[in-house]
Write a structure and sequence with these properties.
With about 475 residues, this protein is α/β, with parallel strands linked by helices. It has 3 domains: about 290 residues, no CATH class; about 110 residues, no CATH class; about 60 residues, no CATH class. It is built from 21 helices and 6 strands. The protein has a 6-stranded mixed β-sheet with strand order 4-3-2-1-5-6, with helices on both faces. Strand 2, helix 4 and strand 3 form a beta-alpha-beta unit. Helix 11 packs across helix 12 and helix 13 packs across helix 14. The radius of gyration is 24 Å and the shape is globular. The N and C termini lie far apart (about 50 Å).
């Protein structure tokens, strides 16, 4: 029965491969053969490919779904011509910002590629530092959502009051930790395979460099320029990237306990050059075969996984109105103009520039749209308007250096309580109503506010300067791909 079942499944897998290849262009078929050769070399020869395990990260975006299809084509192609093929580990990081549409894209691509129940494939997701089987229906755990929210606030507060807020710094930190841990889980993997172009790899490492400095655990080496350096960089950061914010026992350990290798053997295989052809030529594969559904905003602004241009424009507006004494609309317009300038410099089609201008223009023209952005921050990140305003002022770090400014602008009635606020942040006795006010207005427990109080804003060193131009370059690259 087992032999008959295996034969039947092999037939199914070959049918899947033939249908998948029917969507490939001639250039993609050539790239597939080159990919197979690259994997065989990395494994030490085709005779060792059966014991070779690769990791692919799946986030439900257009590019990650396409890369997975390419890897599945390679796996099934080798299986049809050799005694064994490589093992595939596909992992997803559950975090705020990855909602139901992305999870549905992941599930549909897994189903179309017949990854479920294939013993050569592991489908995993990580939620609140726990490695779990992938489950499309499982929501982000309450503990995971709360940890995301708190860590995002801690990272956002680690700056001077007049520095721009980067709301996604914690995403770089948690994603890097995810790469390092999921590569070590359950006997580990031999290689991480990724299709990000070099510019996006550098963009990620720049964001990570800024994030680790805000987390107080050093800087990345200047030589870290691509994902070839990713795992040595992660080893250099140490096992717990949040250790400066929490004491022993406060942070959830990685689980299942005892199933993570002490020494990682993982290398990196770059397959960006295997992604050939124009985007519009890949849409039939993505939509008709993989069942990929693009969200409206992704179609307009691209698919940068770490920065949302619409929310960034909103934050620029808040920065202008709350910190710089200008109008909200001025901050949005300035960000829009920097985006458009970069898009024009990269010769992105004018229709895409118009889409961007129309989308961000609503923030300038309609109070209702600004309210929607505030609602989005609440629903996505769990941040109230008062907590976002507090975050913009970053009043707690450096012994509360910005506290008086924050109170005068936003809570003048609390100026009389400044001595009590300082005492509370120093860990001394303070009235209960003052403690409640601190938690409500910041979204953080008092003990974590006290740790921020004892920290100074980091002086961010290169190459961690992910400037506004860097953000708009990332948007431009995505829009160029859309074009």
């Amino acid at each position: 029965m087992s032999t008959i079942h295996d034969q039947a499944m092999n037939y199914v897998y070959q049918q899947v491969l033939q249908r998948l290849l029917s969507f490939f262009s001639r250039a993609e078929r050539t790239a597939l053969q080159l990919l197979i050769q690259r994997l065989a070399v990395a494994a030490g020869g085709m005779d060792r490919i059966g014991s070779f395990k690769v990791l692919v990260v799946q986030s439900g975006t257009r590019d990650s779904c396409y890369a997975l299809a390419l890897m599945r084509a390679a796996q099934l192609s080798i299986a049809g011509r050799a005694p064994a093929t490589f093992q595939l580990r596909v992992a997803t990081l559950r975090r705020t910002g990855i909602g139901a549409p992305a999870m549905h894209n992941i599930h549909r691509s897994y189903s179309a590629l017949f990854l479920y129940d294939d013993p050569r494939v592991e489908l995993l997701m990580v939620d609140h530092r726990e490695v779990l089987p992938f489950d499309e229906q499982a929501p982000l755990s309450d503990d995971g959502r709360e940890a995301n929210r708190v860590n995002q606030l801690l990272m956002g507060h680690r700056r001077a009051w007049n520095e721009g807020l980067e709301l996604w710094d914690d995403v770089y930190l948690s994603t890097a930790e995810f790469y390092g841990q999921v590569a070590r889980w359950n006997n580990g993997v031999d290689a991480l395979v990724a299709s990000e172009p070099l510019q996006r790899q550098r963009h990620f490492l720049d964001g990570l460099n800024r994030a680790v400095q805000k987390a107080g655990i050093g800087t990345l080496p200047p030589s870290a320029a691509s994902f070839d350096d990713l795992f040595p960089v992660l080893d250099g950061l140490g096992g717990d990237v949040y250790r400066q914010f929490y004491t022993d026992g406060e942070l959830m350990p990685w689980r299942p306990a005892g199933q993570f290798e002490a020494c990682r053997r993982t290398s990196f295989i770059d397959i960006h050059d295997m992604v050939v052809g124009k985007l519009e030529e890949r849409w039939p594969l993505l939509t008709d075969f993989l069942g990929f559904h693009a969200e409206e905003m992704a179609l307009h602004l691209g698919e940068n996984e770490y920065i949302d241009p619409l929310l960034t424009a909103h934050l620029r507006g808040l920065q202008a109105s709350l910190i710089e004494g200008r109008a909200y609309e001025d901050g949005v317009s300035q960000y829009l103009q920097s985006c458009l300038a970069t898009l024009h410099r990269k010769q992105v089609p004018e229709t895409l520039c118009e889409r961007l201008q129309d989308t961000l223009g609503h923030l300038r023209d309609h109070e209702e749209s600004r309210g929607q952005m505030a609602q989005c921050l609440q629903q996505t990140f769990g941040l109230s308007e008062a907590q976002m305003v507090c975050l913009m002022f970053a009043p707690f770090v450096d012994n509360g250096a910005g506290l008086e400014r924050f109170l005068r602008h936003c809570h003048p009635g609390m100026l009389v309580a400044m001595p009590d606020l300082h005492r509370a942040m120093q860990g001394l006795h303070a009235p209960e109503q003052v403690l409640h006010w601190m938690t409500d207005v910041s979204g953080l427990p008092v003990k974590l506010i006290g740790r921020l109080y004892a920290m100074t804003p980091p002086s961010i060193s290169a190459p961690a300067l992910e400037s506004e131009l860097g953000e708009t370059d990332a948007v431009a690259d995505d829009c160029s791909a859309e074009g």
